[in-house]
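Task card 7
Instruction: Convert sequence to structure tokens.
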Amino acid sequence: MRDLDILRQYRAAMLLHDTSQVVVKTMEVKMLLRIIRGKLNPGRWDAFESAYRTAISNAGPVEGLCGRWLVQDLDDPDSGSTISLWTTEEALRAYESSALMSAITAKLAPFFSGQYETRNCRVRFAEGGPAPNDWVSEIKR
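Output:
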């Protein structure tokens, strides 16, 4: 079964709150998370978020990207993470070495204080639902 078909079944199951097959399907697709954790220069969150939204909006669809989130730390408002969900390691690695990622990074780098870390992770277990609002909407083809 193709990854796209599995993702569509996953989304349908989540919308119906039928999570009995979710873990198996998620592990079958070998989904990956890319988590970037960073600390911004003090008081720059709002400007960073605006620049992030603009950069992501201008980037358009990215092959293999299912969804992404920007999250702000509750205990340190100058810190946060971006989390992106990927269909394959190949898609993730292709994005990491792309001119698009370099351009986005260049636009956001001035906001960071120098504390910045990237982790690529394989999803080993998933539970619950429904998924965030149509997180696979870009995959409708």
